[in-house]
Design a protein that fits this description.
The complex is a heterotrimer of chains A (243), B (343) and C (258). By secondary structure, chain A is an alpha/beta fold. In chain A, the strands form two sheets. A six-stranded mixed beta sheet of chain A has the order 6-7-8-3-9-10, sandwiched between helices. The longest helix of chain A is centred in the middle third of the chain and has 14 residues. Chain A is globular. Chain B has two domains: 252 residues, Arp2/3 complex 21 kDa subunit ARPC3, CATH 1.10.1760.20; 47 residues. A two-stranded antiparallel sheet of chain B has the order 1-2. Helices cover 68% and strands 2% of the residues of chain B. Chain B has eleven helices and two strands, in the order ααββααααααααα. About 14% of the residues of chain B have low confidence. Chain C has two domains: 159 residues, no CATH class; 72 residues, no CATH class. Chain C contains ten helices and two strands. In chain C, helix 1 runs parallel beside helix 10. Chain C is flat and about 65 Å long. The model of chain C has no long low-confidence stretch (mean pLDDT 87). The chains are: A alpha/beta (243), B mainly alpha (343), C mainly alpha (258).
Chain lengths: 243, 343, 258
């Protein structure tokens, strides 16, 4: 069986010529939760965009055995859902219902099926009562949950999340961790929050300056205080006590 | 300068609504043929930008305590082109009406025409005409200034025209016109300056956004602002005074307000033959003929009995309405209280 | 920000909130048209008409203070114009109201009529938009023939007003925090231009992100939505009552009150 994500020798330059990603090799098996950690500007978000085919560079990217190219784009995006950093960019319709129905409608589902998808996705993130609310009436935590729901409604096999805990207070962060831990999909989570990564991930990929520095066991990488400090990161609480 | 429902008669409101709807429908159909899906969010966001941008104010010179803000129509027309610009600004005007109640529902047609359609197209074509040919910073500057001032004036002129056509004005047409022209000359001037300032910024930071319409730099120097203000003062001052003297009833306004001569014969606007003609036209063709002032019982020296009759029925009407409102409110309050108790 | 709350009442639930947006819109349109074509010197009939929007607001649990505060906010232009009437129309009239009789001018009568009409029609508009979710209003307008491009545009605009107004507030606060002394007009303009410019660039970025979000969810250029509107018997009943109210007042009460 093919890997959920397979990236071989992928490089990308910004339009102005600066290198954003260089020679990325990454394979993620199905059902795994991968944390993509690294300082700001390391190339985490760009790598997530490359997975869903939003940027084209040199090298090969495959999602669920399907090569990401123009021909496969629609099918690729059916299998991988990407949740953007700012929920205000993700929620662009006048009501939550319309927002979550947007994806399923584009998949060509019937109105009844769409209603089912929306109800299920909202129930998963605990916002079942909020379907007819406007996004600007939601709290930051609710917006974050809603953004995840827009992806869930399309039932992708793989979900990428960019800084999913940005601007969340501890209580909402705890809810988010519970939500992520309950998902059965393959997850790729780009984050600067080492505590989130330590709690949720099965595997950690450390990036800096557009390159993969380390890839492997969560505890091994994240408890290495020298490696972490070299890349401007901190050892999460979970591992700092044992050291 | 949002037009209000109350300044319009039904035929004028219906006519302008039809024109605005027809125009917008036509533009939408035309744009839809060439528009890619990627432009949809851009247009929406730029509409929101106009809203938010109108909150960014700046102090006006020589008038402490007053501040100006962007209108945005000409800026968007220059950046997006007139069709997209017109749709975006129309949507802003519609949201101002529906969400913020700025401008009435019946006046929506007028407001879309005056504030969106006319400024977008007039502004765009003026700017393109002035900057046609080889690019120069002076041309771009003059083009943006002229486009802003004239586009806004063109929209503002329509307000008194529509009001006069509706026959609701008390102010003589020329007074209203000159006031609108004067006020909006200033609005247009500020719009021009801020449009240039924004264009200059964009040209520096994101030249890709304005490649088509602003291929080179445009500057907002102290000198150019001074020269603009000077020319503006002379032209507007001369123009307005000429206009005022050219219109015979243009000065009545100042007389009418003279507190030192309370006996001065009031300028009753309905003596105006043009407006009387409009009145007559409306009474004939309006589906619900407006009440004619001349047969007003209030206006005529009515007999004792008549007066009393009118007074008591209107009294009953007002009191009855007030009582009805109180009853509605009480019933709703009781119901809600009961609901709260059972819940 | 107070703007985020301007439409909060639309998301409540009540019998009037549940009415179909098309029916409500058309009723308010007709109501406004009829109020506008009322005589220019009759104030009392306006009180009768005010009962309509008043009832909707009360049934819709919209606080009247909110409505009247809002009317005050949008009134300056009409206030100035209404106040010109007393200057120009000085035909003396005698007004009798119940036990009171006093002398005034036709100008003042017209001034109060125009302000009264303004309050009543704005009240009706507030009654419409604070008992109707904007998305439903948009869907209704689309069914009434508004081009879909404009409907999509209005949807995006409505969604992002609140986001960008917040951004604008941040920028304004940053300027206020740094303002020292009195800058010249030229500097003032340049600063405002820069603020607007950066707001503009930020808007472009947001639009770019939304594009990604849309395409990530399978958008292919065709805009698809689910129709949620449905006219029920309550809507027919409402239309009937509204028509009876509006035309009853116009044809039977107005002639008596004059």
């Amino acid at each position: 069986m093919s890997n959920a994500i397979e990236i071989q020798n992928f490089s990308y330059r910004y339009p102005d010529g600066t290198s954003a990603l260089s020679d990325i090799n990454l394979a993620v098996e199905h059902g795994l939760r991968v944390a993509l950690i690294g300082p700001n500007g390391a190339g985490k978000s760009t790598l997530l965009l490359a997975m869903a085919g939003f940027i084209k560079g040199a090298g090969k990217v495959s999602i669920d055995g399907l090569e990401v190219n123009r021909k496969n784009l629609k099918e690729v995006r059916r299998r991988i859902g990407c949740c953007l950093e700012n929920p205000d960019d993700q929620l662009f319709m006048p009501t939550l219902f319309d927002d979550i129905a947007f994806g399923p409608l584009n998949l060509g589902l019937s109105p009844e099926q769409v209603r089912g998808c929306v109800a299920e996705a909202l129930a998963t993130v605990g916002l079942a009562e909020m379907a007819e609310k406007a996004p600007h009436h939601l709290s930051a935590g609710q917006k974050r949950g809603a953004a995840v729901a827009t992806i869930l409604a399309m039932s992708p096999k793989i979900i990428t999340l960019d800084e999913p805990d940005g601007s969340l207070d501890p209580r909402h962060r705890k809810n988010l961790v519970r939500l992520l831990a309950g998902l059965s999909q393959t997850l790729v989570i780009a984050t600067c929050n080492m505590n989130l990564a330590a709690v949720v991930a099965d595997r950690v990929v450390l990036m800096d300056s557009g390159m993969i520095i380390a890839d492997g066991d969560v505890q091994k990488i994240m408890s290495d205080s020298k490696l972490m400090a070299e890349h401007g990161l901190e050892v999460p609480q979970k591992f700092s006590d044992s050291n | 300068m949002h037009m209000a429902n109350e300044l319009l008669s039904i035929p004028v409101a219906a006519g302008t609504l039809a024109i605005a709807a027809g125009g917008l429908g036509f533009i939408c159909r035309k744009v839809r043929e060439v528009l890619t899906g990627d432009k949809l969010p851009l247009m929406g966001i730029l509409g929101a930008f106009v809203f938010a941008g109108q909150m960014v104010n700046f102090q006006l010179p020589a008038m402490p305590g007053t501040s100006g803000h962007m209108v945005g129509a000409v800026l968007l027309a220059i950046i997006l082109g007139p069709h997209l610009g017109a749709i975006v600004i129309s949507s802003v005007v519609i949201i101002q009406c529906l969400i913020f109640q700025d401008g009435g529902l019946l006046a929506l047609g007028c407001n879309v025409i005056n504030m969106a359609l006319v400024p977008s197209y007039v502004g765009y074509f003026l700017y393109r005409t002035v900057t046609a040919g080889r690019f120069s910073p002076v041309r771009a500057y003059v083009g943006a200034m002229l486009a802003s001032i004239i586009a806004i004036e063109a929209g503002a002129v329509l307000v008194p025209v529509q009001a006069a056509l509706s026959g609701v004005l008390a102010v003589p047409f020329s007074t209203f016109l000159i006031t609108m022209l004067g006020v909006h000359a200033l609005v247009g001037l500020m719009e021009g300056l801020i449009t240039v300032a924004v264009l200059a910024y964009l040209q520096q930071v994101r030249p890709d956004v304005v490649t088509d319409t602003l291929p080179g730099r445009v500057r907002l120097s102290r000198k150019s602002v001074l020269v603009t203000l000077l020319i503006f003062t002379v032209v507007i001052g001369a123009g307005l005074s000429l206009l005022a003297s050219g219109m015979p009833d243009g000065l009545e306004w100042s007389y009418a307000e003279r507190p030192d001569e309370p006996d001065f014969p009031p300028a009753v606007s309905n003596e105006d033959s043009a407006i009387a003609a409009v009145d007559e036209f409306q009474e004939k063709y309006s589906p619900m003929p407006d009440y004619s002032r001349r047969s007003s019982k209030l206006g005529e020296p009515a007999g004792e009995g008549m007066e009393a009759h009118v007074g008591w029925t209107s009294f009953a009407g007002v009191v009855g309405s007030a009582v009805t409102m109180v009853v509605i409110w009480l019933v709703a309050w009781l119901l809600r209280k009961k609901q709260a108790r059972t819940a | 920000m107070h703007h985020a709350y301007i439409d909060k009442f639309a998301y409540q639930d009540s019998p009037v909130h549940r009415l179909d947006s098309r029916v409500k819109f058309l009723v308010v349109l007709v109501f406004t048209a009829v109020v506008i074509s009322l005589p220019r010197t009759s104030v009392s009939i306006l009180f009768c008409f005010a009962v309509g929007p008043f009832a909707i607001l009360v049934l819709g649990k919209v606080p009247l203070r909110f409505a009247f505060k809002h009317i005050l906010l949008v009134s300056p232009f009409i206030l100035v114009l209404a106040l010109t009437f007393p200057f120009y129309d000085r035909t003396p009239v005698t007004v009798a109201f119940g036990p009171l009789v006093w002398d005034t001018t036709l100008g003042w009568m017209r001034c109060f009529t125009i302000l009264g009409k303004f309050v009543v029609t704005v009240l009706a508009l507030i009654a419409l938009v604070s008992t109707t979710r904007f998305s439903d209003l948009l869907a209704g307008l689309q069914r009434l023939g508004v081009p879909s491009l404009l409907v999509i545009q209005l949807g995006f605009l409505y969604r992002y007003i609140f986001v960008l107004i917040d951004s604008a507030h941040h920028i304004l606060r940053a300027r206020a925090a740094r303002a020292i002394g009195k800058p010249g007009f030229n500097t003032e303009l340049k600063v405002a231009g820069g603020m607007l410019g950066s707001l503009f660039v930020r808007s472009l970025d947001t639009a770019e992100h939304i594009n990604v979000a849309m395409h990530a969810r399978g958008f292919d250029g065709n805009w698809r939505t689910i129709n949620k509107l449905q006219i029920r018997s309550a809507d027919y009943l409402f239309a009937l009552v509204a028509a009876a109210f509006i035309f009853g007042l116009y044809f039977f009460v107005r002639p008596v009150l004059q």
